Amino acid sequence: MSKVTPATRALTAAGVAFTVHAYDYDPDAESIGLQAASALGEDPARVLKTLMALVDGKPVCVIVPSDQEVSMKKLAAAVGGKSAQMMKPPEAERVTGYKVGGISPFGQRKQVGTVIEQSALAHDLVYLNGGQRGLQVRLKPTDVRDVAKAVVADVLA
Length: 157
Fold this sequence. Notes:
By secondary structure, this protein is an alpha/beta fold. Helices cover about 25% and strands about 25% of the residues. It has 5 helices and 8 strands, in the order αβαββαβαβββαβ. A 5-stranded mixed beta sheet has the order 4-2-3-5-8. A 3-stranded antiparallel beta sheet has the order 1-7-6. A hairpin with a 2-residue loop joins strand 2 and strand 3 (about 60-65). The longest helix has 9 residues, at about 30-40. It is globular and about 40 Å long. The protein starts with 5 loop residues before the first helix and ends with a strand.
């Protein structure tokens, strides 16, 4: 497994301190984020999942703790939209350039608006996808916010 991905290159280019953590990815897991947290021996609240949604038909990246769900109404409101829905996996892969299960908010094919759940900022360090299945990066949540140019909002269901 390569530990250099578009995501890790984007973090390096941004001058962000991060560490890379590989784990055994289970493609059959009911929840990829919870499986990653378990494999890493981490609290699911510190292992963030990257989801792709459409708000008023436009792609939006949303970052939330792996043990939580997104409120589509709150997500739409966070970016000044009226309605939101989850993006279908093939479309998410096309927009981001990553495979589902390996989507990172960093180094996507095209920069899209990003929202990070405000509770994620309460941790010293968080994990999120490093750009391929079975690869997580650990960094400060404020760095996630800054590099992804993310709006901070309460988007939990």
